[in-house]
Structures are given as C-alpha cells and as structure tokens.
Amino acid sequence: MAAKKAKGKVVGKNPANPWEDHYTRLARKEAYAARSVYKLKEIHTKYDILKEGARILDLGCAPGSWLQYAAEMAGSSGDVLGVDLKPVLLALPPQARAVVGDIYDLSPEIRTWIGSGLDVVLSDMAPATTGMGDVDALRSAALSEAALFLASEVLLQGGHFVCKIFQGRGFDPFVAEVRRLFEKERIFKPQSCRKQSREIYVIGLGFQGRI
Ligand SMILES: C[S@@+](CC[C@H](N)C(=O)[O-])C[C@H]1O[C@@H](n2cnc3c(N)ncnc32)[C@H](O)[C@@H]1O
C-alpha cells in the first residue's frame, strides 16, 4: 500500500478513509460488503471448511461479507444464517439470510433453524473496544467463549469452528478448550489482517462431540 506516516497517523491513498488499503479496494471491486471477506477466504483456502451444501451459522455477521462468501461456497444447496446486533443491509442469495440478535440470547426462530445440527460455526465477532489492551482482550475472549459454547451445543460430529479472538489475556485457555473439543486446532493469522491488529483466528477442525 502506498501509505506514509504523517505526524504519527497512517495516511493511505484515500484521505477520506485513512484505513483504506489493497483489500478495501478489492472488496469494493468484487462487491463484497467488507474487506474481512479475505480473511475467511484465506482460512477456507487453507483448511477447506465450507463444503457445498453445508449448513453454516455466522456469528457477528454484519455488514455481511462472510455471509456472502459462505453462501458462495455452500452453493444453492447450502443454508447459511447470520446473526448480529446490527442489521445486514445487503441483498443476499436465497441460501443465506441474516437476523438481528444477540448471541447471548438466541431467539426461538434461530434455535428452530439450527434444528438437529450444523456443519460449521463461524464467529468474527468483535467487542466494543476501549483501547486498553487487557480490557479489549478479555472482552474478545468472553465473546469467543460464548461462540465456542454455542458451537459445542449445535455442531454435528466432525463439524468445524472458526473464531476471531484478540491475542492477550484469555487467549491460552480459549485455545486449550478448542483443543479439547476438536480433533485438531489451528491458530492462523491471515495476510489480510491488518498488521497492527491483535486479532487472530482459532480454528477447530472435526468436532468430537460434547466431552
Ligand atoms: C468485525 S464485525 C464482523 C464482520 C463480518 N464478518 C463481515 O465480514 O461482514 C464484528 C461484528 O460482531 C458483532 N457483535 C459483537 N457482539 C455481538 C453479540 N453479542 N451478538 C451478535 N453480534 C455481535 C458486531 O455488531 C459487529 O457487527
């Protein structure tokens, strides 16, 4: 990115959005709702988690780029549901939809959709940040633990889990719990994550059932 530092502030090519970078522009060009899509794309390219026909729950789905990509990968026989505190304002393909909700209090509608189980649970949830490293890491860990608890309730045997978490306090115990519940766990920082960000993805492959 042709960016330079001016008085401690990173300035990109677009003065209206100093955070704009290659991935922001690519997302716009490819009609994705956010640059975050390239993180999921990298994860899927490496771990092959989004199969055709899969039933996928996307936690913290707004503005909707993971939903778009998951729906593309699952294809017309797939079934993808996103949940977020905020609405998704995109037109989605028929196999995907989004509902407004808090993952700490899932509606009966979502519980009914989950039915007898899911192939994949994704969580790109992020807390409201304070700028205080420890506080933000603990908030992120709390969201990640809630996502993992939900995944352990709704995943089918052999299912997969992808979860964003901030590195810091709460990270190691979270990874240990993913390791306990899944055949394999992986920690992956996509190239498309901003270098200064503390976010990283923990991936659980092959859910072993509640143990
Ligand atoms: C980084 S954004 C997700 C971006 C999304 N993956 C995409 O590609 O468009 C994080 C989202 O997590 C959501 N979130 C945070 N806490 C939540 C909660 N308790 N329940 C549902 N969504 C939550 C936020 O509202 C925010 O939209």
TL;DR?
33% of the residues lie in helices and 27% in strands. With 211 residues, the protein is of the alpha/beta class.
Descriptive overview:
This protein has 211 residues and is α/β, with parallel strands linked by helices. It has one domain (34-207): 3-Layer(aba) Sandwich (Rossmann fold), CATH 3.40.50. The chain is built from 6 helices and 9 strands. The protein binds S-adenosylmethionine. The site of S-adenosylmethionine has 22 residues, from helix 3 and strand 4.
Number of domains: 1
Shape: globular
Mean pLDDT: 92
The major β-sheet equals: 7 strands, mixed
- Structural class comes to alpha/beta
| CATH level-four homologous superfamily name | Vaccinia Virus protein VP39
CATH C-level class is: Alpha Beta
Bound molecule kinds, no repeats = S-adenosylmethionine
At CATH level 2, the architecture is: 3-Layer(aba) Sandwich
The parts where pLDDT drops under 50 for at least 5 residues are: 1-11
CATH fold naming: Rossmann fold
Radius of gyration: 17 Å
**How many helical elements?**
6
H and E order: EEHHEHEEHEHEHEE
User: What portion of residues belong to β-strands?
Assistant: 25-35%
Terminal CA distance reads 46 Å
User: Helical proportion?
Assistant: 25-40%
The tally of beta strands, per DSSP, is: 9
